[in-house]
Amino acid sequence: MKRFPTLKKLVPAFALAICCRALAGGETNAVAPVTARDFYNAGTDLLAARKFADAEKMLQSALAAQDERVQPPALYNLGHARFDIGAELLKKGPDAQKVAARGNAVVAAGGEAIRSAQSALDQNDMSKMMAAYLAGRGVRHDLRDAEKAVQAAMETYGNTLRHWQRAADDFKSAAELNPADTNAARNAKIIEQGIAKLVDNLHKMQQMAAALAGQHQQMNDLLSRLKGRIPKENMPPGAPGDDDDEDMQPGSMAGQKENSPREGDQMQVPLSPDEAGQILDGLSLDGTRRLEMSDQQGAPPKDKNGRDW
Q1: What pTM was computed for the model?
Q2: Measured between alpha carbons, how far is 92 from 307 in angstroms, rounded to an integer?
Q3: To which H or E segment does residue 275 belong?
Q4: 133, 135, 192, 223: least CB-packed within 10 angstroms?
């Protein structure tokens, strides 16, 4: 094993904080990292412990030290950390298929309610207008809830996309610095396939958001017209001053866009948390082995796999 030179640097505050947390958790042998190798090993240990955000910070510090021997594996593991952060966000976020199914059902109900309200107004039939008003209020409530669900899904997929784009770039950089590392290039391609699916999913969510926002506005207008036609004494119980009785315009989410996919990246299969897990399983983990802390030659740790240093 080659000797790594000592780099004299001030230890960042977050590194000290991580070590303090490790000590609080009973890891009495925790030492604040100083050299690029130290930061790399600390980040790799945190990655193995599934503390992905902390691992990302440590590995970024390893790169900042600009040690050419540490940069390729640090980029490799940084790609894993960032992909894992995105995968965790996706796992905890809304299910794309459920959000889409609910949105489609609400859009269908909204279309029917809009047609009924318009018909009641055209006929000037009091009983039909009252029924349409009550039904419309319920549909408007569902539209608002569906918009919130779509917004949450879009935020989740957007955040995941940003992490995965950075992860793909990390693996590409690792491959450029070490052309012999075919796993880095392979991982970048696997993540780009997941990115394409996420982008497709985001486009579908944007279309759903636009449809919901459009119907929400139509429903607001029709309910306002119905309320103007129905005499006060004939208004359905609870209608005046009801929380659903909004005249404001709903915030449109149609204009929210993520980075457009590159040509050829589009895929027509939405990405589920299970599929994200399958992508994760497909990534090569041989770059997660920590660098030896000793300058002496010795066997690599048994619980780690990967390159020898």
Answers
A1: 0.68
A2: 33
A3: helix 273-282
A4: 135
What lies within 8 Å, CB to CB, of 108 at 6+ separation is: none
Contact 291, 70 (CB under 8 A): yes
Q: Contact at 8 Å (CB) between 45 and 22? A: no
For residues 287 and 72, what is the distance between their CA atoms, to the nearest angstrom?
Answer: 9
Q: Render pLDDT for 260-284 as a digit per residue (tens, 0 to 9).
A: 333 333 323 345 555 555 565 556 6
Radius of gyration (C-alpha) of the chain in whole angstroms: 27
Q: Determine the Cα–Cα distance for residues 77 and 81; give it in Å rounded to an integer.
A: 6
Cα(114)–Cα(62) distance, rounded to whole angstroms?
A: 59
- Burial pattern 270-287, b for ≥16 Cβ within 10 A else e, equals bbbbebbeebbeebbbeb
pLDDT tens, position by position, 221-265: 999 999 999 998 888 765 444 444 454 443 433 333 334 333 333
- Is 266 within 8 Å of 16 (Cβ atoms)? no
Alpha-carbon dihedral 59, 191, 263, 212, rounded to 10 degrees? -100
Q: For residues 198 and 89, what is the distance between their CA atoms, to the nearest angstrom?
A: 13
Cβ atoms of residues 254 and 211 within 8 Å: no
> What whole-number distance in Å separates Cα of residue 219 and Cα of residue 221?
5
CA distance 167 to 229: 58
SS (HEC) of 181-219: CHHHHHHHHHHHHHHHHHHHHHHHHHHHHHHHHHHHHHH
Side chain identity at residue 208, one-letter code:
M
d(CA 128, CA 133) in angstroms, rounded, equals 8
d(CA 202, CA 94): 13
